[in-house]
Amino acid sequence: MGSLHDVVENTNVVCPPNPLDPEEFRRQGHMIVDFIADYYHNVDKFPVLSQVSPGYLRECLPDSAPNHAEPIEAILQDVRNHIVPGITHWQSPNYFAYFPSSGSIAGFMGEMLSVGFNVVGFNWMSSPAATELETIVMDWLGKMLNLPKPFLFSGGGGGVLQGTTCEAILCTVTAARDKVLTKIGRDRIGDLVVYCSDQTHCALKKAAQIAGIHPDNIRALRTRRSDAFGLCPETLRSALADDVSEGLVPLYLCATVGTTSSTAVDPLRGLCEVAAEHDIWVHVDAAYAGSACICPEFRHFIDGVEGADSFSFNAHKWFFTTLDCCCLWVKEPQHLVNALSTNPEYLRNKATESKKVVDYKDWQIALSRRFRSLKLWMVLRSYGVANLRNFIRSHVNMAELFEELVTKDERFEVVVPRNFAMVCFRLLPPLGGLSARDCGLETANAITKRLLDSVNATGKVYVTHAVVGGVYLIRFAVGASLTEERHVRSAWMVVQEQAEALLAEFNVHPVMQEQTDAVLTAAVHG
């Protein structure tokens, strides 16, 4: 404990400069913009996948926060020296991993405006422009997707900007849960069942568990190669019949347009027809592929969406809008409001009581919310529908090019059909006179994993993997805003170079197959 004298001395300090001084903001703001512009100018020169080891940053930074202010110049120097090496560069033109997180000048500038205003738009009164712009932008975007009118505000539905698909699914699962439990009694929550395919994103499982659905009542239904790994409606019908016969209550189906593993597409019309037989909520998760559906040639992938209750896609994936920005539409917003609203005295106001406004706090999990619509509005206005479609088409064209390159090389195989801008491929093992496609699956998987690791170790390209139908494959997802055809061709050269080295290592005679299998299996396990 310090003495009273110590306390007096410690509080006798000069008043610091105002933390929101406009001129200092202008000075530092220009420095940050220049820093980021230089970063993008040179981003292709960095290793795409960060090469640091776990815990590296603690060795670079002090154990405690500074007691006195430090200049922005010193802070930016530390960003350059210590933070940038620890970044995996999602905006690099050589980034082909996971799904894209595409950015744009308009998206960045909209984010700057949003952060600069720093409003907390939980209800209409807290910032009318934030609410009203969101309702307008969501109707604009819904029309671009040619969503059925019941999903739009102009048709009795409506859209809301969530942070991520995980939030969108949690909100809709919760709405579906309360809708059903109001009818059958809350004591039957243990009887509720949700459905998806074995290709559905793990966000559904997390959301269902948070919403109180028993883990044993989450049905991940099997998909097949013959259906291109989309969920067969008859498989759903059979599962529903089994659960109903056991006295369980079907609640919710999550259908996917563009799965994470392979961009598979669930047949919406057939699934919605089956779901309607049991009056279950259907949510369409188009987190990645929804962006492409603004193009008329891809719109057919969401045919049947008129039978769904909700639809979402992530504008921060492939729509040139910075993270976070998930677009969710619902046909009957009142179900969200019923499940998620709270109305404490300190939030009561005339606008809300008039029933003429939207209070978005009742459409989401959190109370506070960001002014996300500003950046989406700027993207739509700055580029226009025609340019946005052409940006997406350019990525699809580059993916087609990569697919063609893979197909022409007999050492490789495209594993599943390409639907959008992602190619799933594998390296076929060297088996001498035997057919590579007839080799053991474990051997094939092991050599493809080795290829993935060696490609990423170069730092020139970053790709990720999935396992679909037991097959280990490499996902090559085109979508970074800075990517051009030359980057795709360069990436393919890296893949070929690493494959040649790997195949030379295992270039053996068929009689040595057992030894090859053993080496490759050891490789995949560690």
TrEMBL record:
<dbReference type="InterPro" id="IPR015421">
    <property type="entry name" value="PyrdxlP-dep_Trfase_major"/>
</dbReference>
<keyword id="KW-0210">Decarboxylase</keyword>
<dbReference type="GO" id="GO:0016831">
    <property type="term" value="F:carboxy-lyase activity"/>
</dbReference>
<dbReference type="GO" id="GO:0046189">
    <property type="term" value="P:phenol-containing compound biosynthetic process"/>
</dbReference>
<keyword id="KW-0663">Pyridoxal phosphate</keyword>
<dbReference type="InterPro" id="IPR015424">
    <property type="entry name" value="PyrdxlP-dep_Trfase"/>
</dbReference>
<dbReference type="GO" id="GO:0006520">
    <property type="term" value="P:amino acid metabolic process"/>
</dbReference>
<protein>
    <submittedName>
        <fullName>(wild Malaysian banana) hypothetical protein</fullName>
    </submittedName>
</protein>
<dbReference type="GO" id="GO:0019752">
    <property type="term" value="P:carboxylic acid metabolic process"/>
</dbReference>
<comment type="similarity">
    <text>Belongs to the group II decarboxylase family.</text>
</comment>
<dbReference type="InterPro" id="IPR002129">
    <property type="entry name" value="PyrdxlP-dep_de-COase"/>
</dbReference>
<dbReference type="InterPro" id="IPR021115">
    <property type="entry name" value="Pyridoxal-P_BS"/>
</dbReference>
<dbReference type="InterPro" id="IPR015422">
    <property type="entry name" value="PyrdxlP-dep_Trfase_small"/>
</dbReference>
<feature type="modified residue" description="N6-(pyridoxal phosphate)lysine">
    <location>
        <position position="317"/>
    </location>
</feature>
<dbReference type="GO" id="GO:0030170">
    <property type="term" value="F:pyridoxal phosphate binding"/>
</dbReference>
<dbReference type="GO" id="GO:1901162">
    <property type="term" value="P:primary amino compound biosynthetic process"/>
</dbReference>
<keyword id="KW-0456">Lyase</keyword>
<dbReference type="Pfam" id="PF00282">
    <property type="entry name" value="Pyridoxal_deC"/>
</dbReference>
<dbReference type="GO" id="GO:0005737">
    <property type="term" value="C:cytoplasm"/>
</dbReference>
<dbReference type="InterPro" id="IPR010977">
    <property type="entry name" value="Aromatic_deC"/>
</dbReference>
